[in-house]
Structure formats: C-alpha cells, structure tokens
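Retro notes - structure team

What went well: the batch runner handled both jobs without manual restarts.
What didn't: labels got mixed up in the shared folder, which is why I'm recording both outputs here explicitly, each with its sequence directly above its tokens.

Job 1
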Amino acid sequence: SAPGRFADYFVICGLDTETGLEPDELSGENFEQTPLRRTFKSKVLARYPENVEWNPFDQDAVGMLCMPKGLAFKTQADCREPQFHSFIITREDGSRTFGFSLTFFEEVTSKQICSAMQTLYHMHNAEYDILHSPPSNDKESCSTTGDCNGTSVSKLQRFNSYDISRDTLYVSKCICLITPMSFMKACKKVLEQLHQAVTSPQPPPLPLESYIYNILYEVPLPPAGRSLKFSGVYGPIICQRPSTSELPLFDFPVKEVFELLGVENVVQLFTCALLEFQILLYSQ
C-alpha cells in the first residue's frame, strides 16, 4: 500500500544529446516549417526514485504528457518564459496519478546539436529556393522591379533563422513531480523554486538533491481536513486537504477557465453539465 507521501517521483525530460534531433511524428511534423518551428522528440532523461511499487512509472505516458508538443528550440531573439501545466494519468483500474510540469529553456552546449540545427536550416533554405524560385523568363523583370521571389526568400531566411556563428541556441527542458493527489499550487511553487535555484547566480542554502529528497521522502500527505506546511528552497509551501464532508480537492483557479473560454461559453458549459449533455473540449 502507498505510504502516503506527498510526491512519488521527480522527473527530468528534455533533449537526449546521444540520439540527437528526431522528428516528433505524434505532434504533427510539418517539414514546411522552419527548423526552429518544428518539434522534436523529447525523452525522460532522469527520474528519482527508479520505481515505487504502489505507483509503477509509465515512462512513455510521463514523457509524452510532460512535453506534449515535444522539444522546442529558440534563439536569444525569442521569448523564453517558463510555462507550467498539469496532467492526469488514469490507469486501467480507474486509479489516478497526477503530474505537474515546469518547462523552461536552457542553452544548448552540444556542438553536434548546434551543427545539426544549422544543417537543417541549410537544407530548408535550399528546398525553399527550389520551390519558390521564379521561372527563367521572369528573371529580367525581377531584376528590374526588385520585387521577385528571390528577395522575399532572402528575407524569409533571415526571419526565424539560426546562424551558428551569431545566434545562441536554446532548447526546452522540463522538471516534473508525480503525486498521488492534485496539490497544484504547492507543486508549482516547489518546481518554480527549484528552477530559480538552478538559474540563480547564488547557490541555494542546501544542495538541490536535499530538497528533492525532502519532497519525496520526508513530506507526508496531509490528513483529510488538515493543512500542511513544509520548506521549499526559498520559502515555506502550504497545501490543504479537504475533509470527507467537504467538496473534493480542486486546487485550480476558476479565473483561468473564464479567461480561456469566456463568460458565455462557461455559462453554456455549465448549462450542458446540468442537463447532462456530453461535453467535449478540443484543444491544441
């Protein structure tokens, strides 16, 4: 039986430099996109512990749900703000486990990966030149008007492009907690503080491994109807578990539902739920 720990696994997903850049077919690969706008396969790079008997680790599911759009590459010109999301894994017996992921960007230090991205751009630009080159009888008019496809191609090549000699390449990476209950706010704070510790010029008070060990082995699940306060890297983290007489745990801000769907759609959804209609939410 489960010992009632706050978290079962700490997981890291990202770029496997040994296998290199593999197209992510599941995310709908489009080779017409520039290489920086394509998606590549992400992999589970590490997890701790290796396995727990009450919650077997599903590497394929966790890897896909941690980074559902695969790896993303950016340069110094792009926005690289961290993004947080959650997911649920439902097993065949109906039991659930919850995942919380913080995706951020870090500099690519592998020269092989940088060279591979540069090669992809050379191939992409060459293919684009062939597909969009003007007919031979239009060359004279192009040169006189200065408005031929060659000019637009050169502009396109500079837009969303990558030059290994001048650009810094960044790739997405994900840290994740797998937990038995959906304490979203607490998990988000844990991951954000861990990320802050990694990116801060000053080292954290204790080694990062000690904080991860603490969250996995020393922080218990709060009893029903009680709250729990434990230490993060930079400050306390609090979570509360409802009692059996209260509504089930729902640790997500309702505000986001209204921001994403709008008031009219939320009212329509609520009406459909009361009328017991089947509801399907479709999203990218």
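Job 2
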Amino acid sequence: IQEPEEKKIALELLETEQAYVSRLHLLDQIFYTELMKEAKNGKTVPEEVVKMIFSNISSIHQFHAKFFLPELQKRMEDWSCNPRIGDVIQKLAPFLKMYGEYVKNFDKAVELITFWSEKSPPFQELIADIQKRKVCANLTLQHHMLEPVQRIPRYELLLKDYVRKLPPESPDRDDAEKALEMIFMVAKHSNAAIAEMERLQNLWAVYQRLGLEDDIVDPSNELIKEGPIQKISTRNNSTSEKYLFLFNNMLLYCVPKVIQVGAEFQVHLRIDVDGMKVRELNDTQFPHTFLVSGKQRTLELQAR
C-alpha cells in the first residue's frame, strides 16, 4: 500500500533532523570543542574569539539532540496508532528564538574565521585538519555553520507542505496549523533580526562618512535619503555644491571634503525634523528650488 503523503513529509522531517543533529554535533563537539581546547593552551587564538565564532551553538545542539529529535522519533514510531507531529512542533517553536542570536552573529563569525586564519597559522591548520576528516564530507567550517541559519526556513517549508497534504478530518490538523503559525512567527523574528543588523551596519557606514560626530551617532536613527544639492547664495546669485542626509529626526547639511582623510563630509548644520518646514519656490533664475526652514535656520536649496 501507498504511504499517505503527510506521513512521507513527516518522515522527511525526521530524516533531515537526524542529519541536522549530526551536523550540530560536528560544530559543537568537534570544531568548537577542539578549537577551544587549543585556545586554552594558548596555541592558536584567544578563547574569547572561539566563543564569538560559535555563539550559542551548544544550546542549539543540546536542544535538538536531547529534546526535539527524540520526540520526533517517538512520534514516527507510534504513527500507525497516533498520526501526528503538530503537538511536538508547537513545543519546539518557542525554543527556535534561540536562533536569533546565532543568525545575527553569523556574518561576524565568518569574518572572524577569515581574519584569524590569516593572523594565526596554527588556527588555520587546526581547522584544515578537522575539515580533512571524513565527517566533514569535504566541506568547509563556514559551510557547516550555514546549516543552522537555513534550518528554520526548512521547517517552515516542510510544515507548509505537511499541512497542505493533511486530510481535512486528520486529528493533527488543528495542532499542525497552529504549529505552522508559530514557526512562521519565529522565521519572521529571525528575518527581522537580520534586517535590523543590516540597518545598523548601513547606519554605521553613514556615520563613518560623517566623521562620527558624537551628537549625531544614535543607533535608533533611520537614514531616509541622501544626495547632492546646490546651495543658493542670494548675496552673489551663485550656487555651491553641498550634500544632504535626511534621517527620521534630523536633516544634516554637509560640505563634501576636498581632502578625504577619514570622513567624506563635514557637517555644517543640523536641522531637527521636529518643526521643520519645506516650501517650494518659483524662482525663474533658479528652477527646482525650495526653502527648508527649521528652528536652527533657513536654507535656500536647488535640486537637480
């Protein structure tokens, strides 16, 4: 007889989970443990660096090996009399928030591996030595480390499929749908963590171009738009090239630096968005001009 579709998917979940747990074992018990041992002997890199590379991989490994995989195995053994996995996945979902930390740390971890491999040949040699072992299947440490990042989206896909294939009267329907909703929220949560990390990296890059002025650097700011602008000087009817950065809370009016050492721009004026007004001007001599007036002062600017 043909196995029902939903059982095939549940089995695929179990099989990929078994493979995943051995991958986590490799990361936690082999790479992390051995690199840590050598770091403690003072032979390779500082212990802190190894901790930063592997983030919370040990907690993730423990959770899957000691809890989720055994529960899943039990479910599949009892499938004939109790065909369900939704309840187990609901128990799993809240713990997947642990991945937020690992995912957020991933880019930094890869950078650290690259940096210290160049700086410390013994560190590089140890990694190369582990990578040569059969258990690594000719793949790099970085490749294995990507696996946890991809695991939650994988759960989401498998579970979506599972719910789609469930017969309407299945005893697992309610649980499975609820589980899918929970996994979906966690996936969104880890994507939000990545988006937030990218936002902060971009913000930091902008601050560096501005020379890291103390009163401007604030992690909660959001850059909305930036670009060159002409400043009109009414005194001598001429324009000069300036540059604007518009954040959610302030407009920075900058002068491009001729000699770019460190910063690209010098902040000449900061206008708070709170109370700022923008008015278009119909100036025949200077088209596309507008006035920006704030508490600090008023500027007459010309766009391209």
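One thing worth noting from job 2: The mean pLDDT is 89.
We'll revisit the folder naming next retro.
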